[in-house]
Specification:
Bound molecules: zinc ion
Shape: globular
CATH topology of the largest domain: Muramoyl-pentapeptide Carboxypeptidase, domain 2
CATH architecture of the largest domain: 2-Layer Sandwich
Structural class: alpha+beta
Largest sheet: 4 strands, antiparallel
Oligomer: single chain
Strand content: 5-15%
CATH class of the largest domain: Alpha Beta
Amino acid sequence: MKKVVLAFLLLSILLVTCSCGGNTTKKQSDLSDLQSIQSAANSSLSSSSEISSSTVSSQSAVSSKQQSSSENAAADANATVNNVKSENKNIKYINGILIVNKTYGLPKDYNPGVDPTALSAAKKMFADAAKEGLDLYISSSFRSYSRQNTLYNNYAAQDGKAAADRYSARPGYSEHQTGLAFDLNSVDSSFENTKECAWVAKNCYKYGFIIRYPKGKESITGYMYEPWHIRYLGVDNAKMIYNSGKTIEEYFNITSSYAN
Ligand SMILES: [Zn+2]
């Protein structure tokens, strides 16, 4: 009889241990799955040795993280929806060309990043220029609305609004927000006298770019001469604009001026 009781006790202990161990393992694997899903560097759950002592608080931490993670996902989805809405409602296209100047702006949530087609065209252009011993590189590409907001406000504080408006776009009116514009090399007047500048002016249309703010066109484009600022239009459109000798504003007979 004693042996039976002893055997029963031993069996119970074994079962409890197994179940406990199995449970812990499962929790650990759940947690590590969640951690990899969240991929957040700030996880407070990384210490798996403390899981059994703080299972409850860990689990609640996990579920609150899951919640915030799905909230983020929902926010992203909304942003995409808004983006599409914005594109339909507020963005100006002519002949398939996205128009951004002082008259035609972009919504705050228009946030496409660098356009991959424009970027590969630029790289091809740089590679061909390099064969002629020229050194071209991108010094500024895509800028978000908020980045442009910071930049413009700094310039306006430094030089005054009227002066800043000649060389910097107000937030929501920068071509850099399209992801289709690049500033090359030194973004200052020193670029004008380089071989690179001359080469870009002569050849960039072959790669789908135009010099967006040519010399002597400030009253039309709204910006002073910027030989370093190129805008991607695709090869056909760039050729068409280049061969016309006109700016985008002149070619399509549109204005570039702020409403206020
Ligand atoms: Zn620029």
